[in-house]
Amino acid sequence: xxxxxxxxxxxxxxxxxxxxxxxxxxxxxxxxxxxxxxxxxxxxxxxxxxxxxxxxxxxxxxxxxxxxxxxxxxxxxxxxxxxxxxxxxxxxxxxxxxxxxxxxxxxxxxxxxxxxxxxxxxxxxxxxxx
Length: 130
Hints:
Elements: E1 6-10, H1 13-20, E2 37-41, H2 46-57, E3 66-68, E4 71-73, H3 75-83, H4 87-129
Antiparallel strand pairs: 1-2, 3-4
Helix pairs in contact: 2-3
């Protein structure tokens, strides 16, 4: 989790409920029953991805739900968030999309000149051969 920029904490449920009061994530207080592990990160997707990956390999970890800002998430919601691309992946995709039209335009502008040069070379070779 640390490598993904997140943290994991084990907390007593009563203390966690008190800490959640007045925060946007207060809606998950009902999920805090039994042994509880809280995973969180600045990137809204990172903690869900790491928790999902760990839960696949370890049957003892059961994801009950989570929160994304003020929105409570059930188990399916956490799975859906984990399937989303991370912030860094989205930024890379956007940069790629922004750069693609420019490279396509440069290729289209340069292509006719390359075609003309090859036609002239072919005409020259034919003239020399004749």
